[in-house]
Amino acid sequence: MAENCFHCGQDIAKERISFDEKVFCCNGCKSVYEILNLNNLGNFYELNKRSGIRPDESSSQFDYLDTPEIFEKVTDFSEGNTSLVTFKIPVIHCSSCIWLLESLQTLNKNINYSQVNFTRKTVQISFNQNELKLSDLAKFLTNLGYKPVINLETAERKEETLDKTLLIKLAIAGFAFGNGMFFSYPEYAAEVMGTSDFWFDKYKNLFRFIMFLLATPVVFYSASDYFKSAWFGLKNKIVNIDVPIVLGILMLYGRSIYEVLTDYGAGYFDTLCGLLFFMLLGKLFQKRTYSALSYDRDYKSFYPIAVTKIDFHGKQENILLSELKVGDRILVRNQEIIPVDSILINGEGNIDNSFITGESASVPKKAGDKIFAGGKQTGSALELEVIKTVNQSYLTQLWNKEAFKKHETGLDTLTNHISKYFTFTILGITLIAGIYWIRVDFEKMFQVVAAILIIACPCALALSAPFTFGHVMRILGRNKFYVKDTLTIEKISKIGTLVFDKTGTITHQKKADIVFEGTEIQEFDLKNIKSLVKNSNHPLSKSLYEFLEIEDEHFPVEHFLEIPGKGYEAEVRGKTYRIGSAKLVGQESKNLETAVYISGNNEYLGKFIFKNEYRENLNSLFKKLHGYNIHILSGDNSSEENQLKSMIPNPQGMAFNQSPEDKLNYIKNLQEKGQKVAMLGDGLNDAGALKQSNVGIAVADDTNSFTPSSDVIMSGEKITELDKYLNYSKDAMTIVKMTFAISLMYNVIGVSFAVLGKVSPLFAAILMPISSISVVVFTSVATWWRSSKYFSIRK
């Protein structure tokens, strides 16, 4: 009896290695088993039986990867000790592969993290380049059985727009289908007319043999993906949806060979080629559809807001980020994300790359240094020169860095629940129908069984949710509500509590009535203060910058330090200033007012008192949100509490003088009461609360307030239309459920006709892409129709 290797599951043909009461086919598999168990990763073998990949025993040389030019081309990001690289690993095939490759940091201390994209068969790895060479990392993966494929194509890291292999398979199936119909025509004609032709009788066996030759590569090459998928599923004790499809293909192919060999008939070779041609056509349509749904990877989806462009004279202009060109100069303030790969021109760079690398250590930068997109400036404002446009920068991959890690949701559970029993139900129906038709019409039984197995493929069901949500994402984005991923839309539809930050969210960021109170500030100080407030992206700082009518001479700001929730301090032209709360400058706030206090060299200079201007139509918005629990949070005092109560019909809660930590805890308390919370803030002091909430919505007006903590970025001018976005997300859920119903209805009706023998396998194959197209058409029309109720239609 043949034995199987405990690690890779392959038959042990040559050497048999016993270790730890288990047998292995080679030293490579034994070594991987030892490594996993030494690091407490034995769960790898519990996820899937025969889950391992046999290590490549050839001497793989990856030393060329350490050449600086090649290293720079292959890696995604490299700065300080940390580098990021994305390897193509075609042998990834099951959940245990994903689990192992995402546990690499446990096996090697110099690996920070790793993330698998199962669809693209890639793994992105963050590693310490000073301790672990890129070549050694590649060898390490090879020794585990996951040899990376590295060539010019993978190094270019271009997005796949077309699956060339699938196109070749489709072309072969189409060629065989067309020619098969040509060679089978005389036999069909003779059968229809009831006559016999001398030349046809003489050459019919040749024609049948040619049809067999045409169909064979279609079955074993064009349909190979179905066979592989079914085999991997069965090997891991899973009966996936490709199993009945493969049974149908083999049944038609085997029956056709039998008929030709016994001279019973011509078989179904032409039908089989047509069947696979239309199935592959449907598969191509589905792949192109999923590719079109990659809205979350389009940089325009998460770079919606303008960035501050400056000219050589220091004049500032807000432009769309997508309009930036190489050579432009931009201003990046404290706590803002670097939007494009740039060169530092002016300022003290202190770049936090945690968003890219996962490590919180900051990297100092000086003039002339390159700064990667995705880093966050902590300190004074920087003047940068753009060296790559936004669509070429590495940041385009980052916001959805973990988007491929699917979280289970209500819809996922429903789909999985249906799929779990779907195949067994279809196989049961097929068995019963087969038994019936064997007794009634043995020849027709093959067509009936094949038709049932083919028509039941749930392609339309698989397209329902992703296409609907993807389409909704695009419509929301066109209306300045930029959603991070499709999962967020489902979360929005379940929200019952809305928490609004006050300053910069429901108030205008730059519009305010400002009054100065204190001793007259000298021109020297005013110019310094204007240079200083330019460095902060807080709404009050921006308002103050616009209010100060003195010329900004762009004096260098040194030792910039921001104290969250209180203000900031820095040195300008040798004088140290503090700008922020009363407590920060050693004063006491006697009145309930919103004010910015200023001191220079510990001497109190005065305060700027703000009377916030609320956004238009807020009263109308809060009335439309009558079904939600409304809460207001603010870092300011309660001076405007009465005004807020007059705008909000029944506020469930208001809290003032809130620090960033207070806001986060407020959200936690609501969630502990079972509430689904959406937090709307400006993304600055609200980062913790945005991340804690079920849905974090960053509200931005005219700067790139992109934040890793948010699930949505929306334009500040659209906040009074919040009810439309919430209602449209709920409508999207209804549309998804309707598409589920349509998909299931198609299967019920189609299988019913197939059981009755009213549908041929070829017609079933034609119906597959038609059903998918019908779902796509329905969801497109439905999402467009519902959107027209809320938004103006834009192209």
TrEMBL record:
Pfam families hit by this protein: ATPase-cat_bd, E1-E2_ATPase, Hydrolase
Membrane topology per record: Multi-pass membrane protein
Cross-referenced InterPro entries: ATPase-cat-bd, ATPase_P-typ_cyto_dom_N, ATPase_P-typ_P_site, ATPase_P-typ_TM_dom_sf, ATPase_P-typ_transduc_dom_A_sf, ATPase_P-type_domA, HAD-like_sf, HAD_sf
Keyword DNA-binding: no
Major location category of this protein: membrane
SUPFAM superfamilies linked: Calcium ATPase, transduction domain A (SSF81653), Calcium ATPase, transmembrane domain M (SSF81665), HAD-like (SSF56784), HMA, heavy metal-associated domain (SSF55008)
PROSITE patterns to which the protein is assigned, alphabetical: ATPASE_E1_E2 (PS00154)
Entry's transmembrane regions: 166-186, 206-227, 239-258, 264-285, 421-439, 445-469, 734-756, 762-785
Matching PANTHER family: ATP7, ISOFORM B, CATION-TRANSPORTING P-TYPE ATPASE-RELATED
Family: Belongs to the cation transport ATPase (P-type) (TC 3.A.3) family. Type IB subfamily.
Entries under NCBIfam families matching the protein: ATPase_P-type
Identification of the protein by name: Heavy metal translocating P-type ATPase metal-binding domain-containing protein
Organism from which the protein derives: Chryseobacterium suipulveris
